[in-house]
Amino acid sequence: MARRKPAPPEQSIDLPITPMLDMSFQLMAFFILTFQPMPQEGQLPLELPSIESVGGMQDPNIPLDTKPEEYTVEVSSAGGTIVALTIRKDTVITPIKDDYLETLRRELAKVEKPAAKKPTIKLEVADDLKYSVLINLMDACKSAGFDSIGVTPAKK
Amino acid sequence: MSHGGGGGDKPMEPNLTPLLDLVLQLVMFFMLCANFVSDQINRNIELPEAVTAKSLDLTVRNVMFLNVNEKGFVVKQHISSTDVEGEPSGGGEQLLRTPLQIQRHLKSAFDDKARADGKKEAEDMVVIIRADKNTDFKGVYAILKEVKTVGFKRMQLRAIQSDKSFDQGKK
């Protein structure tokens, strides 16, 4: 009489999850410790004019064949910081206090800006002025309503 | 009727598989957010803050990055051993110190783009200048002049978006 062999007992295969979890925690700890969120960058768009000019940078919306009124702001500096601002040779902001940007913005905001012929700002900047201060000045000019801002080195 | 008493000696183990899934999701998140070394963004450069800086236009693809350190030198990511322009500064970077080196670098990029996609595309390429906040105006201005000389027409200055008001004193 043939006997049937009994079926082998079912064996379940258990994956060792605990070591995998440990390794995952290690990886996660590495990426958490090396994670550095980037500060939010913004852009200040510029367009270089096609005609040769003295270091002019201009907003692309201003066509080059118009002649807008130009306001010159002379920036005098010493050791990289501003010592005086002269607007169109008649308004001088000195000594420079902490709110000099707000003062500049207020003075420039008084200028009439007709839609047809928007005036432009030309910043004459000393060579040793810090770039961050220049950006602050451009900020103040834009906040005062000037879209077209030119930057040139100060006359020596 | 028997009341269930001790049903055997099976140890109770928590189910670790969902926990592992969750941990792997977190690892994926941090891996995707990790900022590895890139020739576009240089972490050593501290950008200035600007209130009127606009949000980035991510649709613009035709771009070229110029990272400028506080000494006014362009920091160029070293690509290969044959790329010998400029001086090595360690860490796979090269410094372009002189206007001539900067002009050569820009001209090379301009010519490559013009050859590949035409002169118009090269002129429309946006040159993104990431200058350190402590750079002197003289250094930045020299770079702007070189960008203009080579033939580029569009530029962007990068800054950190700030929500400070002007009377908070930024000297």
Q: How does the major sheet of chain B shape up?
A: 7 strands, mixed
Rg of chain A, nearest Å: 32 Å
Approximate helicity band of chain A: 25-40%
Number of strands of chain B: 8
Question: Number of DSSP strands of chain A?
Answer: 6
- Relative helix content of chain B: 25-40%
- What is the element string of chain B, with H for helices and E for strands? HEEEEEEHHEHE
Share of β-strand residues of chain B: 15-25%
Count of DSSP H/I helices of chain A: 3
Q: Mind telling me the C-alpha Rg of chain B?
A: 26 Å
Strand neighbour order, sheet with most strands of chain B: 1-8-7-3-4-6-5
| Spatial order of strands in the largest sheet of chain A | 4-3-2-5-6
Q: What is the averaged pLDDT score of chain A?
A: 77
Alpha-beta classification of chain B: alpha/beta
Query: What's the overall geometry of chain B?
Result: elongated
Q: Briefly note the structural class of the backbone of chain A.
A: alpha/beta
